[in-house]
Amino acid sequence: MSNTQQNACHSRNRVRGLFGDVESVFNQFFDHSEKAAFRPHWDIVEKPDGFGVTIELPGVSPGDVNVEVEEGILTISGEKKVDRSGENQTVHSFERHSGEFKRSVEFSTPVDLDNIEASFNNGLLWVSIPKSEKVVPRKIEVKIGE
Q1: pLDDT tens, 33-62?
Q2: Assigned domain for 105 exists
Q3: Which of 23, 62, 77, 107 has the highest Cβ tally under 10 A?
């Protein structure tokens, strides 16, 4: 790398550092992240026989999670609680989000409400939603004339 390229790179890093510092100060005074909505990320997949939903819920107690399906709409809701109390401490930053959350997805294919399963492990909630037997593709055996 030439001296000119190194100087340009160094200048860009100084500018990034400056804006990072400005952002930090701005967030400290104006960003009320402790009130910011907690919106967990999820993956939704479809297979021939059903749907699978995996949602990241680190720090959420399984007892604080609700899973409901009504009229083809899956709703996952709950609350992530973060204890910010404490005596004799100075808080320099609150970056962890907390609060109530609600995520919903509508399935265009009829689902089997009686066989939905959910499990929670290591901060991940997994929900299996089978399709209704009426819509699951199946192979029909063709018999040779008798």
Answers
A1: 444 578 899 999 999 999 999 999 998 999
A2: yes
A3: 107
